[in-house]
UniProtKB/TrEMBL annotation:
PROSITE patterns: KH_TYPE_1, TUDOR. SMART domains: KH, TUDOR. It comes from Mizuhopecten yessoensis. The lineage of its organism: Eukaryota, Metazoa, Spiralia, Lophotrochozoa, Mollusca. One of its GO terms (molecular function) is RNA binding. GO terms for cellular component: mitochondrion; P granule. Residues 234-254 are annotated as: Disordered. The chain crosses the membrane at residues 12-30. Residues 318-376 form the Tudor domain. Residues 244-254 have a biased composition (Polar residues). InterPro entries: KH_dom, KH_dom_type_1, KH_dom_type_1_sf, SNase_OB-fold_sf, Tudor, Tudor_domain_containing. Keywords: Membrane, RNA-binding, Transmembrane, Transmembrane helix. One of its GO terms (biological process) is P granule organization. This is Tudor and KH domain-containing protein.
Amino acid sequence: MTMNLDLSIRSKVILTLGVPATCLLLYWLLRNQDEEDDDEDQQRVTTSRQTVIEVMVPSKAVGPLIGRQGANIKKLQNQTGTMICFRDDSKRDSGEDRVLVIRGSTDQAQEAELLVRKTINEMPTLLTEEIQVPVKALGRIIGRNGDSIRQISRSSNARVYIDRAREEPRDITKKVSIIGSREQIDIAKSLIEEKVDEEEIFRAKAAVIAANREQRNKQASGSIRRTGHVLTNAEKHSNDQEGIPTNPSSPQKHVSLTTHVKEWPNKEYIEVYVSSVADPQHFWVQIISTNAIHLDELVQRMSSLYNTDHYKNLSDDQYLVGDFVAALYEQDNSWYRARVMGIEGSQLDLYFLDYGDSGYSHISNVRLLRDDFLLLPFQAVQCCLAQVKAKGEDWTEDDVNHFEDITYAAKWKVLMAKRIGTKCEGDGETTQIVQLIDTNSPVDIHVSHEMVQSGFAEWDIK
């Protein structure tokens, strides 16, 4: 009986102590499980914080938004710390609107979205403009293997398309479509116009040379003196009378300019082109004749000689005002006849005898002119436009620019000239007083009348 009582007491004690301990242990286990669950939930929230934003991009904005080789997209990604790419890659060349996907934190994704939308909104409206260009200029616009037209597109950032429809024999123009902003289209048009002008100048020069060749063929074969041929005794005597040296081995410094300028032909109207302009009362023309071909040959001979190593290393720093020299024009690496008009240190003020223009050249690019290069008369003839004068004390820049435009200065375009008199300048040179007529249009344009009617000159009542 006593043992049963003791067992009952021990059981009660164990139960009394065990139940709370078990409850405590169970509580501790359940609490740890809850904390682990909370940690897992917390990780899930952190992971799910990456935001995905989709932006619909118009097809016309896809290319500029991507940029060359993806440069613009890469810049946006680096700036915002997001991942940006287009969905539906299969629609790349379909011309449809595309979905841009932005991935990142909420703040980063929203910043990237704002920048993308701003870029789209600020993108200039694309325009399409069609122009007509001469068929004869297409080759120069397109270039070899399309090099020129690709360069025009790159320089203007506009897309340029030439109508591929088959040309008809009567077609004189071709349609060119330009796509871009207003500024891009204007740049592309100006570049195309430059190519058209280049082609016109090339064809005009070719026409002048062809006309000269035709005129030369009509003349007796013995009546033309070729530059550089062996002179007969009669020719030498004639040259001596005119002050033209005949020794081809020595450089020439001084020659009479007034006796060596090309003479005005004894005709009522002659063909000329305006080579240089100071103002309407001081400009220079080249007369279309066989001498134009001789001048081309002379420039080639001079360039071949003075570009040799011997002459490149041969320099003379003892030039005087009035010397006749050969001067290098670096843009085409050719040498031209010139006269020294002034000296400023190592710079020489030169007057180019066959074109009438002036410019400065470093002394290292100048050589004394060999006397055989003086056999051909100087081709630039100084002229004054007849019957007009400046509206003010002097000609303005606008006056000169308009005169250059309507006379096609330095563009090898033929005008008709009629001499109505001469006058002697202060330096003793003779100036031809001429009327100029543009016969390139269906209606002849008298340059003097055009200058007055356009408000760039007034009549000289004297």
